[in-house]
Amino acid sequence: MPASRLRIVHNNDTHEHWPNMPKSVTAFNALASQGQQAGFDVLRLNSGDNNTFNEPDEWVLSILLNNLLHLDATTFGNHELDLNVNDLAQGLRNYAKYPSLVANLAISPNHPLAQLEQAGLLKPSVHLIRGQQGTYGLIGITRPSETAKISKSVKQSGVQSIPFSHTRQMVQAMVDDLERHGVNRIVLLSHMGYNLDRKLAQQVSGIDVIVGGDSHDAIQGIVPGQNLLTSPRGEPVLIVQAGWNGEYVGTADVGFDAAGRLLPLQSQLHPTSAFQDDVQADALLKQFLPPQQALAYMAQPVGVSSIKYRPNPLAQLLADSARNISGSDISFIRPSQVRKDIPVGTLTNWTLKEMMPYGGEFVTITASGSEIAGALARSAQGLGSVSGKKAELLHPAGLRLVIDVNKGQMRNIQVYNRQLQRWEPLDPNRQYTVTIDDYTVKQSDEFPEFAHPDRIMWQSHRSLRGIFMYALRQMGAPYQSIVIPPTDSRLQLV
Predict the structure, then answer these.
(1) Do 404 and 303 belong together in one domain?
(2) Which terminus of the chain has fewer CB atoms gathered within 10 Å of its CB, N or C?
């Protein structure tokens, strides 16, 4: 029999999917209350990415909604670090009623975030929660430097993420210190993703539960060898994660013996659709967000679950729209910009924001054929089984090619010549005009071949949502039902 029992109520990667948040608030409070009534200590935890893009008002709304969850702690996701550093700090300082735990960020002294430490709102160290059945040590970490994405504002202000190897050593030292002080019930909040969480669980001793995020895994149940692993000391470590976009709230019920050894009991995901909207959360949405407006009627659904790996009709429509607006030779859409399926029925401004949450704008640059081929090779390698990196399939317009998925190689790259109205081989020495999102042009971490802001020759002042709405209006929205055409043969995967 366990000497003590703990229920962890958790979510992650809500990404400003507002319609799910009132239901998440109800779910959090109901599941926490059920745990308390059943005799459990209860921790309420969030593993980051409540924000999306750099919109200060919506960041404040995310914080206020998290307050309604009565969180014991959260950590930073990579999308918290999309924000301007002053907006990030000011939002937490003025509104947060919970601490953010981030042990693996190096923050310079006198930094706006460092100043939050004095108020207990940002903790690079351990956070202790004293329950009726014991004391729990909480540690929080975000993406290590190998996978970190941090806005220029935050980087330039003196914030850096540290490597995984250093993160691992730091976590082990913090756990060792907790154990020396008699705290042997330890929960790690992680926004590193499932694969790195597994690696950490098997390399650090003393962690009992990892509450994860970033990889959007909906982990149901407890499966030895998958999310129930063994530490170097031979002790069990449970990993839990609750999907993304507020679709689930998770509960992890565990026990501890007298020596603090974990006794896993049950781990469940609870669909938030089964819960009613919280009245206070609804009121916040009405206060902060514009009224819902009908933009179009979608006659058929379009899925995006395989958009990183396969041709997709929505991605091709967006690429065509960007090329038509700009008049460029070629345009590209990155799959990570599209985050949710198009459902049948009325498309509203809220639904559109959930589908395409990022701002920014599309720009046109010049790029040589060899640079374009280099970016396409990087995209093809991401699909190949030989590659260790995530796939990021570039969806083109004005260009077609064949990709050997098994080898991660490409061939037969052709560009459509607008003037001659014919397809021609990509010329490595020719300069082409390329339309793509300005994030790719201003950052070198994904496709450095296009990271040339000095080459910007045209700015659309349209975000991806604007590109999409342009396409829908060309198809008759809002007066006609919209059917997005199927994929064509521009991308052939063999």
Answers:
(1) yes
(2) N
